[in-house]
Amino acid sequence: MEHHQLAQRLRAFRKLKGHTQQGLAERLNISVAVLGSLERGTRKPEAKLLEKIAQSLEVSYEELTGEQKSE
Fold first, then answer.
1. Of 41, 35, 34, which is closest to residue 14 (Cα–Cα)?
2. Is 68 buried (19+), middle (13-18) or exposed (0-12) by CB count in 10 A?
């Protein structure tokens, strides 16, 4: 998975769903700095966090990442 592509999807879905970075970070129980680094593609997210983000944004893991989830 390319981090910059994931970062773009994450930012786009967050904005589409009407969340601020602050609001989404609070829902995810992470810092705004962590969310910002994910949106910039400078931090590699763990699959568990990606699942949590997808759920919070009400999109599938596949939509968020652009790839199939490995079991």
1. 35
2. exposed
CB atoms near residue 17 (< 10 Å)? 13
Q: Is residue 18 helix, strand or coil?
A: coil
- Hey, what amino acid is at 40? R
- 8-46 pLDDT, tens digit each: 999 999 999 999 999 999 999 999 999 999 999 999 889
Please state the separation of Cα 58 from the chain's center in Å: 11
Spatial contact of 37 and 43, defined as CB atoms under 8 Å apart? yes
